[in-house]
Design a protein that fits this description.
about 210 residues; alpha/beta; seven-stranded mixed sheet; 7 helices; 7 strands; Methyltransf_11; methyltransferase activity; transferase; SAM-dependent_MTases_sf; methyltransferase
Length: about 210
């Protein structure tokens, strides 16, 4: 019951945050994240799944020839994403869903994308496992997120912020998703880079062929 109450509280927080999300994230895009959205989307091909698509800030950067599906747990975020997709003339299937239990068959997508959202998924390792499950052999997993900084003073600030952001919205700043990807037996890492005081990590991996 406590877990359900916590999840409901986090969902209400993200629904409420949808009204100001674009403005808040726009600041970080300009000053911390650089061209990360373009970098991720430009590498997407075929049937694409974006996990935690939010308000659809990535939509304008996807190639026109991809078939896009995006999920999010916040209905209000998805409403904004649907409006943005319509304005851009970029068709997308946008169901409400949980990243821990993706409602898709194994090997359904050529590319799975996640930008700046693993921080707010309660069990990010379970979500990464699900993302890998729905990838086709040879398919690409493309991630960019803010992570545990390589600079000690910045990590201290991150720890302080988590005292408030985790209870309020389940948002973490000290996660290191690359450790999970390295341990996965069905993924091979093709590219990784880190910048902005070690705060931002970009990763491309592919799903190895199954026998």
């Amino acid at each position: 019951m406590a877990t359900d109450d916590r999840t409901a509280r986090w969902n209400r927080n993200w629904d409420k945050k949808s009204a100001t999300y674009d403005r808040e994230v726009g600041f970080f895009d300009r000053h911390l994240f650089g061209d990360s959205r373009q970098w991720v989307c430009s590498q997407s091909t075929g049937d694409v799944l974006e996990v935690a698509i939010g308000t659809g800030l990535n939509l304008e950067f996807y190639p026109n020839d991809v078939t896009l599906t995006g999920i999010d747990r916040s209905q209000k975020m998805l409403d904004l994403a649907r409006a943005r997709a319509a304005d851009l003339g970029h068709p997308a299937t946008l169901p409400q869903a949980d990243a821990h239990h993706l409602p898709f068959d194994d090997a359904s997508f050529d590319t799975v994308v996640r930008t700046f959202g693993l921080c707010a998924i309660p069990d990010h390792t379970q979500a990464l496992t699900e993302m890998t499950r729905v990838l086709r052999p040879g398919g690409k997993l493309i991630l960019v997120d803010h992570i545990r900084s390589s600079a000690a003073p910045v990590r201290a600030v991150q720890r302080f912020l988590e005292l408030f952001t985790i209870p309020l919205g389940g948002e973490h700043f000290l996660r290191r998703p690359l450790e999970h990807l390295r341990a996965a037996t069905d993924l091979a890492i093709d590219h990784r880079e880190r910048f902005t005081l070690g705060l931002v990590k970009r990763v491309v991996a592919h799903k190895t062929a199954t026998t």
